[in-house]
Specification:
Elements (H helix, E strand, L loop, with lengths): L5 E6 L2 E6 L10 H15 L6 E6 L4 E3 L4 H4 L4 H19 L5 E5 L2 E3 L1 H8 L2 E5 L3 E3 L13 H9 L1 H10 L2 E3 H6 L5 E3 L1 H16 L3 H14 L4 H16 L2 H11 L10
Parallel strand pairs: 2-3, 3-5, 4-6, 5-7, 6-8, 7-10
Antiparallel strand pairs: 1-2, 8-9
The structure holds coenzyme A.
């Protein structure tokens, strides 16, 4: 599919989605948000694609936030609708059944950090800068930042970042657990590819169940979450891949997973 503000490609089982508005530091206007949803749905339905790497074009920005020129025109009802549409995108990413890795190659501010938060794994380049600067505009995060940031880095750090609106560098993002690792810019995509391939060497349904169990369990009590995990474990036991994976171990050979 052709997009105006994205490029996508497939290679060796991976789908790459690149936000491509470098002149606006890849800021998310309505059209880009819509295209991102389309691109994720297209890769969701594409059996050749087993994992996604999401990044921004150029060497300066992942996504510098929602497009401020659009934000400036919103009234209350439109603002709520705008947030709900952005949240549709971040929910689509978070609940994606295939691993999604954010390759954070520069500024990830506002909606950029929020989109990265929705990804399953975040890798930052050394020049990455992250933050939720919405309060500086008289706004608050609207694409999930107040919820997912607190769940990922804890309430205290989320409060600090959101109330100050400050931008932090990749090192600090790593130290507070906002990103999984930091690598030099030229190693960013190769590292993300390696991590994605490491994941997709495993059983696809097991990946899907693990993502769902982690995501859904976080909204529950520990006891409820453990029940949920047991349900998914049971589902995993009923797959052909679990029989193949355990048999392959016992027969000292590589498993041949079929996603069944
Ligand atoms: N929305 C719309 N346009 C944006 C944007 C955003 N979130 N972020 C950057 N841009 C545009 C700038 O307006 C500028 O466009 P112009 O050349 O037509 O004037 C272009 O991208 C380059 O940005 P510029 O500010 O000149 O780059 P810089 O290197 O001086 O600063 C940032 C980089 C990221 C610090 C700065 O662009 C910034 O603060 N952006 C807004 C971040 C933000 O508040 N995001 C959250 C929104 S809710």
């Amino acid at each position: 599919m052709e997009y105006k503000n994205l490029t996508t490609k497939k290679r060796e089982g991976l789908g790459f989605i690149v936000v491509n508005r470098p002149e606006k530091l890849n800021a998310l206007n309505n059209e880009t948000i819509r295209e991102l949803r389309q691109a994720f749905v297209a890769f969701r339905d594409d059996l050749e694609v087993k994992a996604i790497v999401l990044t921004g074009s150029g060497e300066k920005a992942f996504v510098a936030g929602a497009d401020i020129s659009e934000l400036s025109k919103l009234d209350s009802a439109q603002g709520k609708q705008y947030a709900l549409e952005g949240q549709e995108l971040t929910k689509l990413i978070e609940s994606f059944k295939k691993p999604v890795i954010a390759a954070i190659n520069g500024y990830a501010l506002g909606g950029g950090t929020e989109m990265a938060l929705a990804c399953h794994i975040r890798v930052a380049s050394e020049n990455a800068k992250m933050g939720q600067p919405e309060v500086k505009l008289g706004l608050i995060p609207g694409f999930g930042g107040t919820q997912r940031l607190a769940r990922l880095v804890g309430k205290g750090k989320a409060m600090e970042l959101i109330l100050s609106g400050k931008t932090i560098d990749a090192k600090e993002a790593y130290e507070i657990g906002l990103v999984n690792c930091v690598v030099p810019l030229q190693e960013l995509l190769p590292r993300c590819e390696t991590m994605a391939k490491e994941a997709i060497a495993n059983a696809p349904l097991a990946l899907e169940f693990a993502i769902e169990s982690i995501n859904k369990g976080l909204d529950k009590t520990l006891e409820e979450g453990l029940h949920l995990e047991a349900d998914y474990f049971g589902k995993a036991c009923s797959t052909e891949d679990s029989k193949e994976g355990t048999r392959a171990f016992l027969e000292k050979r590589k498993a041949n997973f079929r996603g069944q």
